[in-house]
UniProtKB/TrEMBL annotation:
It comes from the Bacteria. Its EC number is 7.1.1.-. This is NADH-quinone oxidoreductase subunit F. Gene3D superfamilies: 3.10.20.600, 6.10.250.1450, NADH-ubiquinone oxidoreductase 51kDa subunit, NADH-ubiquinone oxidoreductase 51kDa subunit, iron-sulphur binding domain. Keywords: 4Fe-4S, Flavoprotein, FMN, Iron, Iron-sulfur, Metal-binding, NAD, Quinone, Translocase. The gene is nuoF. InterPro entries: ComplexI_51kDa_subunit, NADH-UbQ_OxRdtase_51kDa_CS, NADH-UbQ_OxRdtase_suF, Nuo51_FMN-bd, Nuo51_FMN-bd_sf, Nuop51_4Fe4S-bd, Nuop51_4Fe4S-bd_sf, Soluble_ligand-bd. The keyword GTP-binding does not apply. SMART domains: NADH_4Fe-4S.
Length: 440
């Protein structure tokens, strides 16, 4: 478990890795002929057997999601790739599409064949124009080489792939809001049921998967489901890209089996920056509850992180040392969620605004200790009551930070603001961080 397992990232250091020639030189598009020799249902069964779970945050079994598509429905079937990566701290899909877009394109072809879709879409966040252009060129190369279009590889299977640039809304990372945006409407979540598998894009059966989920499919087909299932843990199979950012010496993408620990990843990244210690971290981006150094040895798989009180999410590991004000960090995240709320439902639209007001007062050292209970009450009124997961995600850093760093919130009230001293070697008195359980 201490070694990396480069699969998706294996060709990132190849010269001009993003080109078709470089991709095919390393065996690219070999999965197509192997998949076309199988029945579509057998491809779905192989993905189910591999244990691949959604790499976009929820961790739902990918093969099971594909199996929900009603094949007796006469309407067209669609595959939509969610490439609207915008969770604070999440930075795995964009480098994957930049370094090796053909990995994703090949995954789209195999996945579309499995669910019997003849049209697929990659919905990319609109701000990343360089990624959009690279994907568009990769799709063009695939068409010219006969990997896309009519009668692919003489199989009789047809597929058209469209790269769609979104309008830059965080909410479009929610799958039904993404469908709304893809259809040309304002990106807001849909009421469910019906679920996308029954009535998704253009009211037709639709599968929506994350970039990394779809990009993992070719390697499963080529190497076999047993190979993939042989990595990771019993219930969280395979490998994943772990994004380390923040106060670590060598931030970046680390592809490893699920179940690796943060301690092992930090060691691979050269440790925390010199002279500093880990204070708190997120296991799956800012919408997952914070964890502390107490959790350094928690296996990073869906079950273990859940048991520790957080979520594995997108494996966006943001690491903060003792120079970071947890109150200020949480306020910044809360401001982000307030700004990105689509406004469709009252708990999220109003709740995130009030959370920001209360957090801002506390960060300035205004108010009383009772405001912490007000904050928790506000979170309780949002959690589970919002139209989608944005509201829930906005509450996670607040409730978890009060759980682990209540003393730091109180110190803001005592000092009349943040007690951070830029001239000091550490941000907070050691007695305060120890009381908050923030030292290793």
């Amino acid at each position: 478990m201490t070694t990396l397992t480069p699969v998706l990232t294996d060709n990132w250091d190849t010269e001009r890795a993003w080109t078709l020639a470089a991709y095919e030189e390393r065996g690219g598009y070999a999965a197509l002929d192997k998949a076309f020799a199988m029945a579509p249902d057998d491809v779905i069964a192989a993905v189910k057997e591999s244990g691949l779970r959604g790499r976009g945050g929820a961790g739902f079994p990918t093969g099971m999601k594909w199996g929900f598509i009603p094949q007796d429905n006469p309407r067209p079937k669609y595959l939509v790739v969610n490439a609207d990566e915008s969770e604070p701290g999440t930075c795995k899909d964009i480098p994957l599409m930049m370094a090796s877009p053909h990995t994703l394109v090949e995954g789209v072809i195999v996945s579309s064949y499995a669910i019997r879709a003849n049209t697929a879409f990659i919905y990319v966040r609109g701000e990343v124009l360089h990624v959009i252009r690279r994907l568009q060129r990769a799709v063009q190369e695939a068409y010219l080489a006969g990997h896309l279009g009519k009668n692919i590889h003489g199989s009789g299977y047809d597929l058209d792939l469209v790269v769609h640039a979104g309008a830059g809304a965080y909410i479009c990372g929610e799958e039904t809001a993404l469908l709304e945006g893809l259809e040309g409407r304002r990106g807001q979540p849909r009421l469910r049921p019906p679920f996308p598998a029954v009535a998704g894009l253009y009211a037709s059966p639709t599968v929506i998967n994350n970039v990394e989920s779809i990009a993992s499919v070719p390697s499963i087909i080529v190497n076999g489901p047993e190979w993939f299932a042989g990595m990771g843990t019993e219930k969280s199979n395979g490998f994943g890209i772990f994004s380390l950012s923040g106060h670590v010496r060598t931030p970046g993408q680390y592809e490893a089996p699920l179940g690796i620990t943060l301690r092992e990843l930090i060691d691979m990244a050269g440790g925390m920056r010199e002279g500093h210690e880990l204070k708190f971290w997120t296991p799956g981006g800012s919408s997952t509850p914070l964890l502390t150094p107490e959790h350094l040895d928690v296996p990073l798989d869906f079950e273990s992180v859940g048991a520790a009180g957080s979520m594995l999410g997108t494996r966006a590991l943001q690491l903060f040392d003792e120079t970071t004000c947890v109150v200020r960090a949480v306020l910044r995240w809360t401001e982000f969620y307030k700004h990105e709320s689509c406004g469709k439902c009252t708990p999220c639209r109003e709740g995130t605004w009030w959370l920001t007001q209360t957090m801002a007062r506390l960060e300035k050292g205004e108010g009383t200790e009772a405001d912490l209970d007000v904050l928790l009450d506000q979170c309780d009124n949002i959690l589970g009551r919002a139209f989608c997961a944005l509201g829930d995600g906005a509450t996670s850093p607040i409730t978890s930070s009060i759980q682990y760093f209540r003393d730091e919130y109180l110190a803001h009230l005592t000092h009349g603001g943040c007690p951070f001293d830029p001239a000091a070697s550490t941000a907070f008195p050691s007695s305060m961080t120890t009381a908050a359980g923030a030292t290793a």
